[in-house]
Description:
Structural class: alpha+beta
Oligomer: single chain
Helix content: 25-40%
Distance between the termini: 32 Å
Largest sheet: 5 strands, mixed
CATH architecture: 2-Layer Sandwich
Number of strands: 7
Shape: globular
Strand content: 25-35%
Order of helices and strands: EHHEEEEEEH
Strand order of the largest sheet: 1-7-6-5-2
Amino acid sequence: MAYEVKLLPSAQEDFEGLDGSVQKQALKQLEKLKDKPEVGKELGERAGMDLTGYHTIRFSKGKFRIVYQIHEDQGEVEVWAIGKREREEVYRTVASRLER
């Protein structure tokens, strides 16, 4: 089953903020998610943040992450954030977006 990959508007902004070479690497990972969304690591409690139900996939030599949810019943992958792993930055971004 092929999944539809949807970026939330804020995740689209994250993607557009990446430089060209990093964008290409992110696109490769987004393409992977269409066929195998379970390829990413399941998140849970992360640095005091509850991200249960979210997954993460690495790219750019592990420096960046894509954080997403799988909606099997709808056949889609919803991307919440794309950003740097450094200092849990991307996870904090997701946590702040969840609070809104």
